[in-house]
What we know:
This protein is α/β, with parallel strands linked by helices and 305 residues long. 38% of the residues lie in helices and 19% in strands. The protein is built from 12 helices and 12 strands.
Amino acid sequence: MKKEDRSFGSFLQVNNVLCGVADSDGKVVLEKLISLLKRHFPDLDMEYTRREIESREAIFPTMVSPGLAIPHARISGLSEPLAAIACIPGGCDFGTDDPAKVMILLLTPIDNPNLHIQMLSSLARSFKESKLIEELSVAPGAQDVVNFFNRGGVSIPDYLKASDLMEKFPVLLQETDSILDAIKTFSTTRSGELPVIDNTGDLRGILSLTDLLKYSLPEHLLWLEDLSPIYQLQPFSDMLKTADETKVADVMREEFVMANINDPAVKLAKMFLVTKLPQLVICDDNGKVAGRVSLKDFSAKLFWE
Length: 305
């Protein structure tokens, strides 16, 4: 099989699929899937596998969308990914308000982060529509499940792209917004940096909390050895007095670094090292903001998700 032809279905075997599962406890369902893989791969260490899955559950949610749980782990000694699926028509409790109707156990080689993240990303993208999860949950037989994936073409590209790693910004700032609007947005989204767009949606700049601090505290004040005259934070008070009149366009940075959704992940790694930025803005081919990748999330996905 050529690399470009890889799909999730190519790693799924009929004898690793359970249909019509009636258990309501997600932990029980997960145990059945681990046991199923152990039956066909005797070298699999069940206790070690269980611990690795649980350690990731404590960091990353395994419910990737309503109805779909993907417990996963990177396992040493594997040469190829192992996958098992449980279809639970009535749903099972897996620690969230939404019951899991489809559970996909995914184990990948510990030394292949590219394939691990690609498979998780491909599965998440393929099940954005809840109706597909419902359809799969009531599949009558294991072969029907395998056919579902072969038909749907859950493809796995050759390398990670920015689009596989990014998340959407909670909100975008308009260049005509006031500084007061921006402050409210930062406080409600808990974001540290947000893109600024114009009325056509084009990216015009970046505004961060650091930019607001710099605007409030002019550089000449930073050279003062004695800061006692401004202990009462007068510069910030002065800025807030006109915050509803000052526009974001007057404070934002017009020089910024952005990546394209199709840039390979290794290019993002290089950009993080060269720019020393904590976050990269990702744009589509038309220059519109598509999302963001933070150094923290990039590292998490690469090293331990």
